[in-house]
Structure formats: structure tokens, C-alpha cells
Amino acid sequence: MAAQELGHNLPERPPSSASSASSTSSYHAWSRSFVDLYTITHEWNIENFIELDEEIQVVFRINGIDSGESTENLKFKMSMKPKYGDNKDFISIYAHNLNRKDLRYSLVFNFMNKKNEKVISRRADTRVHNSNESWGFPRFCSRSEVVDNAEDMLPNGKLTIVLEIGGFKQITSRSDYQKVRDTLTVDDLANLQRDMTVAYEDMIHSDYSLKCQGVEFPCHKFILASRSDVWRAMFSHDVKETQENCLVLDDTSPEALRQFVKFLYTDNFDDVTYKTVSQLLPLAEKYNVKRLVVICCKHLLKLVSIDNVSEIAVLGHVYNAELLRQKATEYICQYPEAVMKTSGWQGLLQNAPDVCSAIITRLARCSIDIDTDEVKKQGRG
């Protein structure tokens, strides 16, 4: 059925309503096309091939070929030159269309061995072959490929050639359609992620607050307890923070705490600067928000630089983030002189001496000229 007819039968879409989901009638249409082919296989046995010097030909007929619209009798000729080229070291082979009309077909020439296996094969892709046209390969293979392997290729002196003709008959197509039952579209309806984002932005019915450096962040106990087993345990006991419905966090920054609260509600945060992410990691570790710990570590690995790599190494050491510690160590060992001139290196010496020792040992193994006595002196200073 034509596309225009399908469209004519489609019902008009009902007017949209802001208070309910829209109903849409759907139709599914499909088509299938079939390429009908025929295959002709002709086997040609040439006795005493080695003694052959001149071109040899053979004509064969196939009667009753179904060409789709009618039954036809087809006629072809094969020809071979056993010695072709200036040095007569190639074998040529051709197929000839002896029919009175043009035909569309492919050709595959095969030289067989004594086990009737295809050893040498070449294909001519499907094309229209004009009446009385020949098509083949003037240098199908080198003569030595056959003669030098006579035991396998010429059993009792006989060469076997198999020609495969892949004929094209017609293309048939069928199409149909059916109506799919009416369904509700839900793309425009609110989902959990969207509702949680609204809850974070509006903070309606908030019953708890987090404070940092004079900035207050209202929130819901239910969300905090759902996302953190530390808060769940806190709210289960009659401690000061539970009684006053307020918790003061002065060991971070307001921006880091804002991003932390946003993550608890939406599973996402948008400030991915090094300063904020490096402060988010301690919060995530402190309140055991494991997913946020992993996300922070991935961001820090992308943000590593000469200036902050020592601080990242300390974070990896303090919060037992092995991948952070490992990657930071590798980075420092790549650029030791530049890193040791930064202020962060002093913090690494003081806060993670074990990491420094591992770095110094690794540098020594690599024969990198670093004044280890000066490094140790810096650490004591």
C-alpha cells in the first residue's frame, strides 16, 4: 500500500491536555524484497594437459532455466590458453555468452585438485554480459602453479576446471502494515530523577540543615539517611545533632558542601574543578558515600598536574585510594625535579612519608639523579 494511502487512513491526533498523557495511534509497516538467482556449475576435464600447447574450447548448453518470467535454454562456451604471455608462463581462461540476448551473471573459475578441492579460484563480480561477449582472466594463474604440483593438480595428467555461473532472475517485493494498539507517551511525564532535582532545588518540607562557615543548607533527614549509613546511624541515636536538627561542618568549604548535597539528591554534581573535587572526596569518605568516592577519584585522575600531584598523592594515602596513590606516584617519578619545587611536595613529605620513601626508592632504581639527603632534610624541616 502506498505511503500516501497509509497516511490518509491515520486518525487525527486528539488535542493535547496539560493534565494527562497524550494518546498516540501508531502504525507499523514493513517490506521484504527477494533476489531470485540461479546457479550453473560446469565441470571441464582436460586430459594430458601438460602436452597441450594451443587454445582449447568447449561449448555447453543448459535447458529449462527458469529466468523468472519464462523458461530458457542457455548456451555458453569456455576457452583456455595453456601457454599465454611473452614467456608462455601463464594460463588464460574465459567464458563466452553465446546467447542472443544480454545476461546478468557472475563467474567463478576454479582449478580442482585430486581430492576435488578448489585450489585456485578467481571471481568476476555480477555484471551484464552482452550477447557474444567473453569475460575472463588472461593471467588466471602461473603455469608453474599447476605443472610443478602435477601430483596434486594433474592426477593421471588430467586438469579439472569447474565454472560457476551465478545468474540473476528477478527481484520480487512484498509490503504490508498493521495498526499498533494505542499507547501512552510518558516522555513528558515527571520521573524520579526529575522529581529529586525539584526536591533539591525547592527543599519544601525540609527538616534538617547543614551549616558551613555561616552558610546554611536545608535538607531532608530521609535523603541523608538513605544515602549515608553514617547519617542513618546518627539519626538512630539521641545525640545533639539529632535533637537540634542541625549539623555544623567547618572542615570543608560552602561550595564543596553545596555540591555534596546536590549529589545526595540527584546523583550528580556540576563543579568539577580541582579545588571542589579535592574537598568532595573527604566528605564522601567521611559519610561513606562510596559511589561519590569513586567518581571523585576518576575526576582527580583527569585533573592531575605538576602543581597538585603531591596533594593528590596525600589524598590517596589518607583515604586509602590505592589508584590515586599509584597514579600520583607514577606522575611524580616522571617529573621529579619539577614536582619537588612545589609547595605540595612539602605537604607530601610531612603527611605521607611512606609515599615519599616509595618515590625516592623508585627514582634510585631508575638511576635518576636526585639529592635524597636534601629530600630527607626537607622532610625533617
Explain the overall architecture.
It holds the Pfam family BTB. This is BTB domain-containing protein. Residues 39-165 form the MATH domain. InterPro entries: BTB/POZ_dom, MATH/TRAF_dom, SKP1/BTB/POZ_sf, TRAF-like. Residues 1-24 are annotated as: Disordered. The protein is an alpha+beta fold. It folds into 2 domains: 34-173, Apoptosis, Tumor Necrosis Factor Receptor Associated Protein 2, Chain A, CATH 2.60.210.10; 192-380, Potassium Channel Kv1.1, Chain A (2-Layer Sandwich). The chain has 16 helices and 11 strands. The protein has helices at residues 3-9, 143-147, 150-153, 192-202, 221-227, 229-235, 240-244, 254-266, 274-286, 290-303, 309-318, 322-334, 336-339, 343-351, 353-365, 372-380; strands at residues 23-46, 56-66, 71-84, 90-97, 103-112, 118-129, 134-142, 159-184, 208-212, 215-219, 246-248. The strands form 3 sheets. The chain has a 4-stranded antiparallel beta sheet with strand order 1-8-5-6, with no helix packed on it. A 4-stranded antiparallel beta sheet has the order 2-3-4-7. A hairpin with a 4-residue loop joins strand 2 and strand 3 (71-84).
SSE map:
Layout lengths: L2 H7 L13 E24 L9 E11 L4 E14 L5 E8 L5 E10 L5 E12 L4 E9 H5 L2 H4 L5 E26 L7 H11 L5 E5 L2 E5 L1 H7 L1 H7 L4 H5 L1 E3 L5 H13 L7 H13 L3 H14 L5 H10 L3 H13 L1 H4 L3 H9 L1 H13 L6 H9 L1
Parallel strand pairs: 9-11
Antiparallel strand pairs: 1-8, 2-3, 3-4, 4-7, 5-6, 5-8, 9-10
